[in-house]
Amino acid sequence: MYDYTDFDDAFLRARVAQFRAQVERRISGALTEEEFRPLRLMNGLYLQLHAYMLRVAIPYGSLDGAKMRQLADIAERWDKGYGHFTTRQNIQFNWPELRDVPDMLAALADVSMHAIQTSGNTIRNVTADHFAGAAADEIEDPRPYAELIRQWSTDHPEFQFLPRKFKIAITGSPNDRAVTRAHDIGLRMVRKDGATGFEVIVGGGLGRTPLIGPVLRDFLPVADLLPYLEAIVATYNLLGRRDNKYKARIKITVQENGIDTVRALVEQDFAARRAAFSGADQVLLAEIRARFRRPEFVTAPTDAFEAAYQADPVFRSWADTNLAAHAAPGYAIATVSLKAHGATPGDATARQMRVLADLAEAFGHDELRVSHEQNIVLPHVHKSHLPALHARLREAGLATANIGLISDIIACPGMDYCALATARSIPIAQQIATRFEELKLEHEIGPLKLKISGCINACGHHHVGHIGILGLDRAGVENYQITLGGDATETAEIGTRTGPGFPADEIVPAVERLILAYLSSREGPEESFLMAYRRLGMAPFKEALYGEGRQRDAA
Amino acid sequence: MSRPFTPKVLTANDLLRGDVVWLTEAGDWTRDMARAELIEDEAHAQIRLIEAEAQNDRVVGAYLAEARAGARGPEPVHFREAFRSRGPSNYFHGKQAESDHV
Question: Would you call A97 and B18 a contact, using CB atoms and an 8 Å cutoff?
Fold first, then answer.
C-alpha cells in the first residue's frame, strides 16, 4: 500500500480549501453554475437525477482498512448509509448536499483519499488488475507504475483540458482482468529478452463507438513509460477533435488518422520528450516502489481450510467460486461478492464496509481492492483463515458464492440515478439475479459475464459482456437490446447485437431463453457460454430469442 | 410546420440539496410535482423558463418537461420525469420517502 508523503497531504489540503471557497462563492451567487460546473467536476462532484453525486477515486482500486472505514463513516454522516462501487474502481455517494461536500473531501484527505480528476476532460483515475500484487500469473505488480501515472497525471498542466476524458488501465498479468483493450491507453506488462516492459494499446473504448484498441508499441521499456505516455496524450491533445463531443475520444483520433500516423507522431514527440526527462521520474518510481511494502507472508499449515472444505458444502461452494490462485504458497485471493441475489450490484452498506475493513485487518494484511466488476477483493488471505473469514462474511450478508457466474452482474446506476441514462439498469440486474437464483441454475451454467448499461455510454461494459444488455428509450418506453459474444479479457471482442430489443417485462424471460438454448446445445459443462457461442454462432440464440412463437415478445 | 404546444411544467434541481423542484404558479419552488404550475401556453412557458434561469442562486439546470393534468395536479408524461418525481427504484429514498411535500 502506498502511503502519502507530506507533499501529497499538503496538496490535498490545499485543494480542499480551494474547493471550499468555490462552493461558498457559488452559494453566495458570486459564481454562476456555468462558472462553477467545471470546478465541481474537477473535484468529482456531479449533479444527477435526484441529487448531487460525489465520485471518489480509489487509485488502481487499492485501499486499506482505515480508508474503507472512513468511506463507511462518510456514507453514514453525509449520505444515506451506503456507497456504490463502480466499474472504474471508484466509489460514488449518491446523496450529498452541496454545503457538505468540502467536509466530505476533508474527511477523505484525512485518509489520503480524494475525488480529483474523477470527472472532466482530464486523465481519470488509473485502473488496474484487481489481483495486482497477489496473482499467481503476474509478471510484476503494476501498482507502482499506476501510482507513478497517478502522480504524473494529477494536475498535469498540459492535460487539464483535453478534447475529452482519458482513461488508462494497467495490468501486470498475461490474463487481462483490467479490460486494457477497451481503454484510451491500455498497458500490459510483457517480458522481452529478460527485461520487463509494456505492450501499449491505444484507442480502445466502449460507448457510442465501441472499439478494441490496436497495439501502438509492442514493447516499451519501463523506464520510458512517462515520456511515452506524455507523447501519446500530447499528440492526442493536438490531433483530437474538439468540434464534436462524440468524435473527441482518442479512439476516433486513431480511427480517423490511422494507427500508423498516430504512431509516427507519437514517436516523433517521444524522441524530444525522452531527451527532456532528467531521470527524476525514475527516482520517484524507486521511492514509490519502496512504499509498496509487500506483506510478510507466513508459512503455515492449511489443514483448517482442507477440513472445512470437506465438511461444509456452503464453504466449499464459496471457495470454489470466490477464490483465485495466489502467488504465495498457502495463500488465496478471496473475492467478496457485492451481488447478493436481488441486491444492487456494487452497493455496500456502511456496516458492510466496516466488516470488510475489520476482515482485511484481521485476515488480509490490511489490503482491499475494488474490482471493476464491482466486487471487493481481499488479495492476501492465508488459507487457514478462510473458514473464519467466510463465517464473518456470512454474518454480514457478504458470502454470496457467485463470482464469475450469471448473477455476478456489472450494472451501471442507470436511470435510477444517472442524468445521462436512457433506461434503468439496476432493476434488470436485480430481476435476472433473482430469477436464476430461483431456478438454482447458475452453478450449472458456469462462467458467464452479464453486463448491463443504461445508455449508450456503456459504463456497464455491455459490449464486452458474454451477454450484454443496453437500456434505451424507445418512443417513451424502456427497451433493452441484447448483444452476445463480447469478451473483456486478453482475447477482447465487441459483442454482436441479436436484433430488436425487448421491453422491461420481457428482458428477463429473453435472457432465460438464451441460457436454456446454451444449456441444451453445449458439448458439456466444460464448454462455457462464450465458447458455445463462438462454436455455434448467433443462429441458435437468435432462434431462442425471436423464433417461432417469440415474435410477439420482440419490440 | 411546428408541432402544437403540449402542456409542460418548469423543473430544475435545487442548488443546495440537488433534489428535484418544480415552479409553482406563484413563482415559488415546490418539491411536490402536483403543486407545480401546468403551463399550457407556449409564450408563457418561455417567460417562465427565462425567469427560472435567472434564479441561478436557487436552482440549477431549469427546463420545461412534458406533463399532463392529473387528479392532484400535474403528472409526468415521460418515465424519466416519473422517476424524478419519485426517486430510485432500488431503495425507498428520495421524493417517495419524504412526507414533507410543501
Answer: yes
**Residue from B57, B88, B19 nearest A51 by CA:** B19
Closest CA to A459 of A42, A37, A85: A85
A256-280: per-residue pLDDT in tens?
A: 999 999 999 999 999 999 999 999 9
The identity of residue A467, as a single letter, is: I
The domain of A327 spans 303-395
The confidence score (pLDDT) of residue B2 equals 73
Q: Where do the DSSP E strands lie in A114-213?
A: 127-128, 168-171, 185-192, 195-202
Q: What is the mean pLDDT of residues B71-91?
A: 97
Residues of A within an 8 Å Cβ radius of B? 26-29, 32-33, 47-52, 80, 94-99, 344, 347, 415-417, 424, 426-427, 430, 473, 476-478
* CB-CB neighbors (< 8 A) of B16 in chain A: 27, 97-99
Task: Looking at the structure, tell me whether residues A320 and A417 fall in a common domain.
Answer: no
Task: Work out how many domains chain A is built from and give that number.
Answer: 4
B84 touching chain A per CB within 8 A: yes
Quote the minimal CA–CA distance from B85 to chain A in Å.
9
Q: Is B20 on the interface with A (CB under 8 A)?
A: yes
Measured at the CA of A46, the angle between CA B16 and CA B10, to 5 degrees, comes to: 60
Confirm or reject contact between B27 and chain A (CB < 8 A).
no
* Sheet of A127-128, strands arranged across: A127-128, A168-171, A185-192, A195-202, A215-221
Domain holding A188: CATH number? 3.30.413.10
